[in-house]
Amino acid sequence: MCNLRSFVADPSVRVPAGWTPAELKGVPSARRPGMLAASFDAIKGKAERDDGQKLTPVQIDQMAPILASSFGLTEEKTRAHLAEVELFLGGPAANTPWNAVTIGHDIYVRSTDELKAIEEWNYRRWLSHECGHVMQYARTPAGLDETHRVRRYLGAYVGHLVVGASCGPGALATGLCCWLHQNFNPFNYSKTHVTLQDAIHDTHVMEVEAERAARAFAMGT
Ligand SMILES: [Zn+2]
Question: What is the pLDDT of residues 137-159, one digit of tens each?
């Protein structure tokens, strides 16, 4: 999941032909609106009813090499997972402060306007960030069925709220410290006044990993 703020990449770089789909398909999610309800649907194995918006072959070609190396996957496996990605409207992204939520191969945005935005070359860092979450899902055991893999992925995400990298404190604790520092520390003379929700999000190890890959992609293109 992620917030749209500061996701615009350098607009001066030439757009590769065919990056954005010729016709955008805004398909509403069949899962219930809201992060918890939709995640619960996913955990129970409720799949999407209709086909969402697929990635274009150009998007897959452009993102696959850097995502493969960033997440320690083969390019072949990365491409196979990217080919399964579908974008939907609503579902877990509905009624949330996040602009996008990714569960398994499904990327959810809140509105048609956000769907248009994430498909633009200028927002390639945003799309590649969400595809980074797909790569984290791709690392769940391949022998499990999709529902169990989704459970592992969501379990890891929730678990890392409590426990961070190398068994250090998780995003709840690190985010709280960051929020206090950026809002209330009298010795911090350049406070960012980040919200608590953003601080927790930004210090989550899976978000940091997805963001690092997305930055590498946006800077390298
Ligand atoms: Zn994210």
Answer: 999 999 999 999 999 999 888 88
Rounded to two decimals, what is the model's pTM? Answer: 0.86
In this structure, are residues 110 and 94 in contact, taking their beta carbons and an 8 Å threshold? yes
Cα of 60 vs centre of ligand 1, distance in Å, is 19
Count of domains for the chain: 1
CA of 187 to the centre of ligand 1 (A): 31
Domain ranges, residue 134:
35-220
Q: Is residue 29 part of a domain?
A: no
Distance 135 CA to ligand 1 centre (A): 12
Tell me, yes or no, whether 118 lies in a domain: yes
The answer to the question of residue 2 being in a domain is no
Question: What tokens appear for 27 in the block?
Answer: 């398909």
DSSP string for 195-208: -HHHHHHHH-HHHH
Residues across the chain: 221
Mean pLDDT of the chain: 89
